[in-house]
Automatic annotation (TrEMBL):
This is Zinc carboxypeptidase. Residues 1-22 form the signal peptide. One of its GO terms (biological process) is proteolysis. Belongs to the peptidase M14 family. One of its GO terms (molecular function) is metallocarboxypeptidase activity. It comes from the Bacteria. It holds the Pfam family Peptidase_M14. Residues 39-294 form the Peptidase M14 domain. InterPro entries: Peptidase_M14. It comes from Microbulbifer aggregans.
Length: 468
């Protein structure tokens, strides 16, 4: 509980803290944060009104540079008239929206009247071009791929997608010195061998298989080192480096081949922050710092050692829910096991069991030796009005899910309901089976795990899980 309170306090301090650079009048990040974009999915309808409003600004040049496969406009927004050119693009993967709001926060900050002096300090040195949503068709479906089922970020060489062609055409015509490739990463990534979620991961992509460092890649490394220092006071223990394996088909690596100093920023999870608003804020801070550093050239005097010191991501260091110390089996065959649960592609399942001391749960619970009990199926043969009390009674009797015609079930309960699971748990907890089962003690069923959510069947309350 103490750790949860500490994390909630830390979250508030991050989101409410002052902008670190060039803030005028004591304003905070929240004064520039664009409302209406704190949501898990961002579609083009969410940003078109914002783009229309930005068209009215005399500072900005808004242009339709292409159309998606399904005909949605792909828009660029430019500011400045300097010789050093910076290109930024977001939502190349439609289900990776975190940096898109951050770009609109940045534009809110840049165009604010009180930022005139700061803005005028770099507009003659830099030209910025932003593409806030490269893959609007994927965004509409909340999927990684575009309407052709292409991963646009693997189309840098073939250029068979209109979105990929648009980005490459912009790069060739604009000829940026710096490119910011803005993505989201798995919520299951951790920082090195620690128990910390990777909220921001960075990378200066390789330009060849040997991952050599040339002048343009070194510039990206130096700049990243400064940007990480900028956000370290906020989330220092939650910063990692993305895998730098060379990806020949990817845009970041291809742009690096073309001599563009490319900076990948991957937005990840943070405790008690389901819509990644901490990562959104950190993107904003890094981009404000990047403008200043590129305009002044301050990154040139820094060392790449700060970049080298950033720990790499650890794949699958976290699971969505981890339940420790469950006793399964009977008599001499009983054993203790931990259980890991993930939600993926709309389904919830047990992904691992056994000694999982190497894993961390985004949410966790210590079962303290409670006995695993396989859930029974309740057959629906007539209409059932499922109130909280009726449901809790069924759970206490060992029923964990319902089978049959779902229209016979009238849900009048606030508790999660599992209907016709495809692969229910059996006598012992098993991987790749559903995350619905019961936990009992000498007095009977104590807890129900229903699609990964814990319910105290004695009180009827949801169990508040701890954040690791």
């Amino acid at each position: 509980m103490a750790r949860q309170l500490s994390q909630l306090l830390g979250l508030c301090l991050i989101l409410c803290s002052p902008v670190l650079l060039a803030a005028a009048g004591g304003k905070t990040y929240l004064d520039y944060k664009v409302p209406g974009l704190d949501k898990p999915a961002i579609r083009q309808a969410d940003i078109l009104p914002l783009i229309q409003e930005l068209r009215q600004s005399p500072l900005l040049r808004v242009e339709e540079i292409a159309h998606s496969y399904e005909g949605r406009p792909i828009v660029s927004i430019a500011i400045g008239q300097g010789d050093t050119r910076v290109m930024l693009w977001s939502q190349m993967h439609g289900d990776e929206p975190t940096a898109t709001p951050a770009l609109f926060d940045l534009l809110s900050y840049i165009t604010a009247p009180e930022q005139a002096e700061w803005r005028e300090g770099w507009m003659d040195d830099l030209t910025l071009v932003m593409v806030p949503m490269l893959n609007p068709d994927g965004a509409e479906r909340n999927t990684r791929h575009n309407a052709q089922s292409f991963d646009v970020n693997r189309d840098a060489k073939a250029l068979q997608s209109p979105e990929g062609r648009a980005l490459m055409a912009l790069a060739k015509s604009f000829k940026p010195h710096f490119g910011f490739n803005l993505h989201d990463q798995s919520r299951h990534y951790g920082v090195g061998q620690t128990d910390r979620m990777a909220t921001i991961s960075v990378l200066a992509p390789a330009y060849n298989e040997a991952r050599e460092v040339n002048a343009s890649r070194e510039r990206a490394m130096k700049l990243i080192g400064l940007l990480v220092q900028q956000i370290d006071p906020f989330i220092g223990e939650h910063i990692a480096k993305y895998d730098d394996t060379y990806a020949w088909r990817a845009f970041g690596d291809t742009f690096s081949e073309m001599g563009i100093s490319t900076i990948l920023i991957e937005s990840g999870a943070h405790p008690n922050d389901p819509n990644r608003q901490v990562a959104r804020h950190m993107n904003f801070e890094m981009l404000v710092a990047a403008i200043d550093s590129i305009a002044s050239g301050s990154y040139e005097s820094s060392s790449a050692s700060a970049y080298d010191a950033i720990p790499f991501n650890q794949d699958d260091a976290f699971v969505d829910v981890k339940i420790d110390n469950i006793r399964a089996g009977k008599g001499r065959d009983s054993y203790l096991t931990d259980i890991a649960i993930n939600r993926r592609y709309g389904s919830v399942s047990v992904v691992d069991a056994g000694d999982l001391s190497n894993l961390y749960g985004a949410l966790s619970f210590d079962a303290d030796g409670s006995l695993y009990q396989a859930p029974k199926a309740y057959p629906l043969q007539e209409t059932l009005e499922l109130t909280d009390q009726r449901y809790l009674d069924l759970l206490r009797r060992g029923y964990g899910y319902f089978v049959g015609d779902s229209e016979l079930l009238v849900k009048e309960t606030r508790l999660p309901v599992v209907m016709n699971p495809r692969n229910p748990q059996g006598e012992r907890p098993a991987r790749r089976h559903g995350a619905t089962f019961l936990l009992s003690d000498e007095d009977g069923v104590r807890l129900a795990v229903l699609d990964g959510e814990l319910v105290d069947v004695r009180s009827g309350d949801s169990v508040q899980l701890a954040a690791d």
